[in-house]
Amino acid sequence: MPFARGPPGVWMETMNSNQSRISVVIPLYNHQHYIGAALEGVLGQTVPVHEIVIVDDGSRDQSAQVARDYAAGDARIVFWSKPNGGAHAAINDGIHRATGDLIAILNSDDIYHPDRFQRMLAPLQADPALDVVMTGLDFIDGRGGALANTWYEEAVAFHRTSGDLGLTLVNGNIFMTTSNLLIRRRAFDELGYFSALRYAHDLDFFLRVVGSGRTIHRVDAPLLSYRQHDTNTISEGHLKVKVEWAAVVAHYLHRLWRAPDAAAVDWQRTLPMLDLLDRHTLTRPVLLFLNYFDRHPSRTLENHPFFTDVAFRQFMNSVVA
User: Fold this and answer.
1) What is the CATH number of domain 10-232?
2) What proportion of the chain, given as a percentage, has pLDDT over 90?
3) Predicted structure pTM score
4) Shortest CA distance to 28 belongs to which of 48, 56, 69?
5) If residue 71 lies in a helix (H) or strand (E), which one and from where to where?
């Protein structure tokens, strides 16, 4: 049974409004200054969670000790450390260990707003066929101060204009992060798990959801604080990001246009996509990836030959340079 905070040191039994059990998976890596705030955001939810699964991905600072201290005070927190394998691997390990029927992910530097799960559960209760819910978000700096993000506002405005979520995500990931995800566990059986991408494993998964024909319900309120700081993975290098961006877009389009069970292509809808690829100078790398995926078809990018094909990866790095 879930618990809610009572007086200091006391946890009181309570019930979720719809009896759903939410497991929060936290991949932790070198965030000793942020993991406490992340955990407080989970523990402070108006709808208490079933469990928190923290997977330390080989942190070299005091992150693991901070998490261990929290786990010692709350039986719902499951914690372990493993050798560094990347965020995707830590998330996947956490999902496999989780026991809830709803899975949420929280990167160890982001923060949930207190009513996040309460607001997200409502559409899931209303529609048993709905599997995925996301929300709007705001942005904070390393000290928790508010930040403006013009790129995000423009990307959301693009979606309001286009009304096409697949096109929107190719243009820019308006969901921003795996921290934004609340998903029914059953969906992983069909969709698979997160691919071994350093920068775009979130976008790859979101496009996989869209490509499967599932609806993503977006609660249009900022219920997640995305922290921007110097050690964000996405800030490491634009060219590295662009190769992965092209790969996941091409795999999404391959599923839409070339898979054996793909629906008939709506040629009129391809034109905005081609215009978008041109605008982002993605056309050439996406076409190359499409041909590569013709030769190496797969349902997902999990365990795809692309990850071990050193010659092709080096070639694609040169193409986007």
Assistant:
1) 3.90.550.10
2) 86
3) 0.91
4) 56
5) helix 63-72
